[in-house]
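Record 1 of the preview.
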Amino acid sequence: MRSDAVNGSGEDEGRAAPSRRKDARRNKATLLDAAAAVFVTSGVEAPVRDIAARAGVGVGTIYRHFPNRADLIIAVYRHQVDACAEAGPALLASAATPHAALRQWIDLFVDFLVTKHGLAAALHSDDAGFDALHAYFIDRLVPVCAELLTASADAGEIDSVIEAYELMRGVGNLCIGADHDPRYDARRLVGLLVTGLRRPR
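->
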């Protein structure tokens, strides 16, 4: 009986462990979403207490996950890249057409570029770290954009005349300065670019 009790306890703990890990990932994602939102409104030098308040946790929880600000900035950047990457397949599965999915994904990409407010500048203080993040950005997002372009071309909606990296670089260039110039609407210009990819009917 004692052996059964021990085994039963071990099984319970085994089942609980994945649940705890899932909760930990969800809690960390909540912190990163809160930090990203605060960075958008207040910049990457925003007080940690503001991030903690938005996430509904204590300041100590932030520091337990991210011992210094650079750790937090890097984690937010990677988290936002991951969210953008994961949106591509989901949009392709749910949008009316592949081109509609491409347009919606490019809108998300523009939001990421325009609202990251100082993330890239902050990371320039550590060239090696920034280089690693830039590589992560390219490795995660270019294949997603390529998948959307290929699906649009296969559906006969666009011609295969542009590479994913080329399109993303063009979109990035159109977004330069959009975060501090109220007279410039990067989203409208990018929308015209994506519309221009469509084959004439």
